[in-house]
Design a protein that fits this description.
By secondary structure, the protein is an alpha/beta fold. Among the domains are: 10-153, NAD(P)-binding Rossmann-like Domain (Rossmann fold, 3-Layer(aba) Sandwich), CATH 3.40.50.720; 323-392, Rna Polymerase Sigma Factor, Chain: A (Orthogonal Bundle), CATH 1.10.1740. Helix content is 47%, strand content 15%. It has helices at residues 20-31, 47-57, 67-76, 86-95, 112-120, 130-147, 156-165, 190-193, 198-201, 211-219, 221-234, 272-280, 312-322, 326-342, 348-361, 370-390, and strands at residues 10-15, 36-43, 61-64, 82-85, 101-104, 124-127, 151-153, 173-180, 241-245, 251-257, 262-266. The strands form 2 sheets. The chain has a 7-stranded parallel sheet, sandwiched between helices. Strands 9-8-10-11 form a 4-stranded mixed sheet, with helices on one face. It is globular.
Length: 392
């Protein structure tokens, strides 16, 4: 995973600028105006927030995937930024000649094509769209190697691993230990989970995140996705990736080495820290996002994940080990099920049940092309939709 040293300031394109990661990335950029020039911003439909971002950062290009939202923005914006829409616009933002780093924080499978386009254009990637590596890990990492592009993780867990690995040889890594908060229902009995509401699910105990990832945290599907992501980012097989529940979210992940020594990365549960590290790597810039007060930390506790109550984690391992299109189906079925849950069409427990059915019904393509992955993604979403209609 190489990295090309860039002259400062870095020229940054953000795909997903109005979401949780995108807005926090812009906070980081604002803290370091001498180190960044924001050259492109892309969002889905939040034209009002994007308009505010254009006024502050004056990028060369702005994109709204939703055509009606782009029309609304054009009707009231008279600044110098060029406004585009749709897939053409996303591709233009991802490949903009001015940009040298692309932060990809689009939600779900939708981030795959723009991320591949950015890689093929020679852009370094700050990756907040874990679904890209989950669905197409081999394609993406092969393309990154071919084009000499760095993929730097923005997830707090994978950022922690990257930090723990600095100065270490790959041959010395024993296992990667991903930490999980356990979500809002960690201590709830399984029988009570059938009645979980969307509002309850979105009240994460430690992190402020987008709706989809917050639900994923509650089901532990997010940790299944992160296991697959870690395999591709760090080249470690699944037998050497472990998940441990750490409710305080202070230790963001750990690496155990061949001699039994363990390195852990600690920090406050604040996504601005891993965002900044991905953008400053291999350096480390000062920031005033708060500091840990060790005297106030009464306990740092750990427990194994309960895959009986939260089976999506085990299904993530299963899909990863099966390989081919199985991880893509795991991701797509989860995305479709989470959207149905957020729309109050299914129960909380039905999310994992739908993933299980999709994985069982899918015929894996062992060495998929991009077209194969797109077909698998579409198949899984259709399968979930049909299963919901039939009554899960």
């Amino acid at each position: 995973m190489g990295f090309k040293e860039k002259a400062m300031p870095k020229r940054l394109a953000i795909l997903g600028s109005t979401g949780s990661i995108g807005t926090q990335a812009l906070e980081v950029a604002a803290v370091h105006p001498d180190k960044f020039r924001v050259v492109a911003l892309a969002a889905h439909h939040n034209d009002s927030l994007l308009a505010e971002q254009l006024e502050r950062f004056r990028p060369s290009l702005a994109v709204l995937a939703d055509g009606a939202a782009a029309d609304r923005l054009r009707s009231r914006y008279d600044g110098p930024t060029r406004i585009m829409t749709g897939e053409e616009g996303l591709n233009a933002a991802a490949t903009l000649a001015e940009a040298d780093t692309v932060l990809t924080s689009l939600v779900g499978f939708a981030g795959l094509r723009p991320t591949l386009a950015a890689i093929e254009a020679g852009k370094d990637i700050a990756l907040a769209n874990k679904e890209t590596l989950v669905a197409a890990g081999e394609l993406v990492t092969t393309a990154a190697k071919k084009h000499g592009v760095a993929i730097l993780p923005v997830d707090s867990e994978h950022s922690a691993i990257l930090q723990c690995l600095q100065g270490e040889g790959a041959e010395n890594v024993g296992r990667i230990i991903l930490t999980a908060s356990g979500g809002p229902f960690r201590t709830r009995p399984r029988e009570s989970l059938a009645a979980v509401t969307v509002a309850e699910c979105l009240r994460h105990p430690n992190w402020a995140m987008g709706r989809k990832i917050t639900v994923d945290s509650a089901t532990l599907a997010n940790k299944g996705l992160e296991v697959i992501e870690a395999r591709w980012l760090f080249g470690v097989d699944y037998d050497r990736i472990t998940v441990v529940v750490h409710p305080q979210s202070i230790i963001h992940s750990m690496v155990e080495f061949a001699d039994g020594s363990v390195k852990a990365q600690l920090g406050r549960p604040d996504m601005r820290l891993p965002i900044q590290y991905a953008l400053s790597y291999p350096g480390r810039w000062p920031a005033d996002f708060g500091r840990l007060d060790f005297t106030s930390l009464a306990d740092l506790t750990f427990e194994p994940p309960d895959t009986d109550r939260f089976p999506a984690l085990a299904m993530g391992y299963e899909a990863g080990r099966r390989g081919g299109t199985a991880p893509c189906v795991f991701n797509a079925a989860n995305e479709a099920a989470v959207l149905a849950f957020l729309a109050e069409q299914i129960s909380f427990l039905s999310i994992a049940a739908l993933i299980r059915r999709a994985l069982d019904a899918h015929e894996v393509v062992a060495a998929p092309s991009l077209d194969d992955l797109c077909a698998a993604d579409e198949w899984a979403r259709s399968f979930v939709a049909a299963t919901i209609i039939d009554g899960i």
